[in-house]
Amino acid sequence: MPQYRQFQPKPYRPEMRAYWYFDRWPYLKFILREASSIFVAWFAVVILLQLNAVISGPTAYANFQRWMATPAVFIVNVISFVFICFHAITWFMLVPRVMARQVLERPTPDLMSAAPSFGIWLVASVIVALFALRVI
Amino acid sequence: MATHRSNRPLPWMLFGIGGFLVAFFFPVHIFVYGIALPLDWLPSPSYQSTVALVHAPITRIYLGILLIMAFWHAGYRIRDTLCDALAMRHVDTVVAATCFAFALAGTIVTVVALCALP
Amino acid sequence: MADTIILEVARFSPERDSEITYQTFEVPLRADWMLLDALNYIKDNLDGSLTFRWSCRMGICGSCGMMVNGVPKLTCETLISEFAPGPVRIEPLEHFPVVKDLVIDMDVFLEKLQAVRPWIVRKDEGLPQREFLQTPAQLDTFHQYSLCINCMLCYAACPVFGLDPQFVGPAALALAERYNLDSRDQGASERTDVLSQHDGIWDCTVVGECSTVCPKGVDPSLAIQQYKLTATKEWFKTWLLPWGNK
């Protein structure tokens, strides 16, 4: 410690508030984005339950479909859909530009890095939907 | 400052791959199976055709990779969220262990389920 | 436009106070004034004991960073008329110990800055015989990160630094990456330990506020994520090729 600091009164050290993310919208947006992971975990479990129902036979699968239509589960799934879309949008705006910068080695406009991901998202969704609905 | 090199790179890579896969594929899964079919917006496929779909190796591989990566993505992110949002940094080791145990459990159940399919 | 505007300024005297208090001042609301001009007006005419840092008045020295209505800003670059009719709350930079009034203790940041070795590291012996040649393309890879003026607004904006003061932080990590990417530098391996520890890049959860508040457009968040990719490659090399050069 420098000599002149030995007798200086202690500085004021502010404490971080426990719910700091309610202070500003950008912080809340960040926490909501991170919280989408809870809904990812939820729906991964739902897909496992769906697989389990498929293994167990037609009655079990019908019960599973009925369960998915109950109000509570339906609402949670709608909320999950919103959160996971939020995750997807924020992900495509953030992550590809890091890879673009690493590969191209110069600053790249954000939209140029994000656009291909949105395109792939659309194509992937259509293909999966076609398979899931047994159109293909 | 401790200068032990972190071992985060491995779970971070899984988090990254999982993030992409979840972003590309989860929305359509939730929309079709969680919203559109329960609301009868789209024609519901028969049980037999669903079994046939899931029976195909490509579907099993797709579901396997998607689910396993989704579990590791969620585990990594939930651990960080609990530490940042709910001030649990001081019990970080316990939180990390729980989250990665959950991810591991999800992985094992997924592999077992996909192997048990008819 | 009204003639005057109220400023609520944080006051803290280490001899007298145990907490920050706020004092209100009424200052002229002039169209061409920055907040720094208002603070200097207070010091010259209203209360000479108000203590704050400033120097260049033009956004290049990085001294005048303060919290303005809860957002970190350079007071020499922030028009006071933006906040009309006011009041405007001015506080010292968040997440740093407060020495007096609006002056914070920078040692925490300076230690981290030194730890990342932000200078050209060469492995060859002696002084260079001629200038280093660098193409514009090579300059492009790191130029953005070299614009940092060490104003610490990014640290004030970073909640991770607020929660964990050991976090190396946006500016230090961006400057480390600036030198890692510089074609003249050969010291990337010397910086790896500091960067790859848990309090280095891995503490960052990509909030992104550091890049939003940066007055020079450095985008430290991008630098950190870039280095995460590099660090991951290094980590895999360490585990898969342990006989490789350390």
**Overall body shape of chain C:** elongated
For the record, what CATH class of the largest domain in chain C applies? Mainly Alpha
Distance between the termini of chain A: 73 Å
Distance from N terminus to C terminus of chain C (CA atoms, Å) equals: 65 Å
| CATH fold name of the largest domain in chain C | Fumarate Reductase Iron-sulfur Protein, Chain B, domain 2
CATH superfamily of chain A: Fumarate reductase/succinate dehydrogenase, transmembrane subunit
Counted beta strands of chain C: 7
Radius of gyration of chain C: 21 Å
Give the fraction of residues assigned to helices of chain A: over 70%
Count helical runs of chain C: 9
- Main structural class of chain A: mainly alpha
CATH class of chain A: Mainly Alpha
Largest sheet of chain C: 5 strands, mixed
Structural class of chain C: alpha+beta
Mean pLDDT figure of chain C: 92
Instruction: Indicate the mean pLDDT of chain A.
Output: 89
Outline the biggest β-sheet of chain A. Answer: none
Number of continuous helical runs of chain A: 4
Low-confidence blocks of residues of chain C: none
Summed up, the domain count of chain A is 1
What overall geometry of chain A do the principal axes of the alpha carbons give? flat
Descriptive overview:
The complex is a heterotrimer of chains A (136), B (118) and C (246). Chain A starts with 24 loop residues before the first helix and ends with a helix. Chain A has a single domain, classed as 3 helical TM bundles of succinate and fumarate reductases (Up-down Bundle). Helices cover 74% and strands 0% of the residues of chain A. Chain A has 136 residues and is an all-alpha fold. Chain A is flat, with a radius of gyration of 24 Å. With 118 residues, chain B is mainly alpha-helical. Chain B has one domain: Fumarate reductase/succinate dehydrogenase, transmembrane subunit (3 helical TM bundles of succinate and fumarate reductases, Up-down Bundle). Chain B contains four helices and no strands. Chain B has helices at 9-36, 47-55, 57-85, 92-116. The longest helix of chain B has 29 residues, at 57-85. The model of chain B has no long low-confidence stretch (mean pLDDT 90). Chain C has 246 residues and is an alpha+beta fold. Chain C folds into two domains: 4-104, Beta-grasp domain (Ubiquitin-like (UB roll)); 107-240, Orthogonal Bundle (Fumarate Reductase Iron-sulfur Protein, Chain B, domain 2). Chain C has helices at 35-46, 107-115, 136-142, 153-157, 159-163, 170-181, 188-196, 209-213, 220-240; strands at residues 4-11, 21-28, 65-68, 71-74, 88-91, 98-100, 103-104. A five-stranded mixed sheet of chain C has the order 2-1-5-3-4. Chain C has a two-stranded antiparallel sheet with strand order 6-7. In chain C, helix 2 (107-115) packs parallel to helix 6 (170-181) and helix 6 crosses helix 9 (220-240). Chain C is elongated, with a radius of gyration of 21 Å. Chain C starts with a strand and ends in a 6-residue tail after the last helix. The interface between A and B is large, with 51 and 55 residues.
